Amino acid sequence: xxxxxxxxxxxxxxxxxxxxxxxxxxxxxxxxxxxxxxxxxxxxxxxxxxxxxxxxxxxxxxxxxxxxxxxxxxxxxxxxxxxxxxxxxxxxxxxxxxxxxxxxxxxxxxxxxxxxxxxxxxxxxxxxxxxxxxx
Length: 135
Known about the structure:
It is built from three helices and eight strands; from the N terminus they run βαβββαβαβββ. The protein has 135 residues and is of the alpha+beta class. β7 and β8 form a beta hairpin. The longest helix is centred in the N-terminal third of the chain and has 12 residues, at 16-27. The chain starts with 7 loop residues before the first strand and ends with a strand.
């Protein structure tokens, strides 16, 4: 895999509205679009999230706030607090790229076949990368 650009920068936040207000006032970020999602986890527990998106040039800025239950970002928030959660990259074949990265030693964290995968290289850097299906 050869990364050519960063396509998304995702932040885990506690209060999306406060972050948007501050970042819009300080940095002129916006306009923002919003999305909500939810479901149940593998143990049947409900979860809900709010997401907000804006762009700086071609790079999507994503804010993720858990509004019910626990989500992937919850553990990060518990340990580190608000901040940069992951970098996202568009790929042509999520499953193929994920398998190749796993073969090279990356740890698969979450995988929605054909759509996205979160991976951690482990060791130095401590970064989570998301590979996403190119729309």
